[in-house]
Amino acid sequence: MSILCRLAFAAAVLAGLASAAAAGAAPPPRKGSIVATEQDAFFAVPLNTREANPCSPQAPDDEWQGILIRVPQVIALRRPGDPVASRPSGPICGLYRIGLNRLASGVPMLLKATDRATGKVYTGIVLDRDRGHEEPPPRPRAIDPARLARMTTSSYFNLDLFEYLALPLRGASYLLHAEYGGLTSNTVVIELREAR
Q1: Is the dihedral of CA 87, 7, 2, 158 positive or negative?
Q2: Is 116 in a helix, a strand, or coil?
Q3: Residue 178 near residue 185 (C-beta atoms within 8 A)
Q4: N or C end of the chain, less CB within 10 A?
Q5: What is the CA angle 31-55-39, rounded to 5?
Q6: Which contiguous run of DSSP H or E holds residue 84?
Q7: pLDDT tens digits, the chain, 196 residues: what are they?
Q8: Residue 40: beta bridge partners?
Q9: Which domain holds residue 69?
Q10: Which residues pair with 156 in a beta bridge?
């Protein structure tokens, strides 16, 4: 768990305790009830942005290159009382730091989710939702490959799982990872859970 996510979680818990103390008459939460969790913090992340947030993974060190992703453990497919499963949001918080030489081919980031029960693999291409430019981009200049090998690019990203992967809206558990620039991220487990 990243330090920022832990801090956000601690702040949410303290805020909940302070408001309960101010209320005075409010009983303490029952065992098993949710006051605030790291899980809740994921659903406050603004999706389709490139800013760091409390749930973003952190680079292990300054020399690290690769891709890291974090997700909530469970995504509820419907709220109690909803007659049908609606399209939920599925936050994926990530970070990449990659040598530009690995991105020269222009292959976009991929998301891959494997259903743990059936083995079926779902793949989605991550493309920026750019609405275009009024003028064409300048012609690319040739860059010395040796110079390109020394340059890196990095970015946080906050994607919506369901915008890029056509996962069935039913209870299931998936192994999820990202691929970009010939690198593969860590694999995380995410569960889609139907309300009971």
Answers
A1: positive
A2: coil
A3: yes
A4: C
A5: 25
A6: none
A7: 454 444 444 444 344 433 333 333 333 333 443 435 677 889 889 999 999 999 999 999 999 999 999 999 999 887 656 666 567 889 999 999 999 988 888 899 999 999 999 999 999 999 876 555 566 666 777 777 778 778 999 999 999 999 999 999 889 999 999 999 999 999 999 999 987 6
A8: none
A9: 3-193
A10: 95
Residues near 147 by Cβ (< 8 Å), separated by ≥ 6?
Answer: none
List the alpha helices (DSSP H) in the chain: 3-23, 38-42, 100-103, 145-150, 161-164
- The full DSSP string for 125-156 is EE-------SSPPPPPPP--HHHHHH-EEEEE
- The total of structural domains in the chain comes to 1
3-state secondary structure 55-72: CCCCCCCCCCCEEEEECC
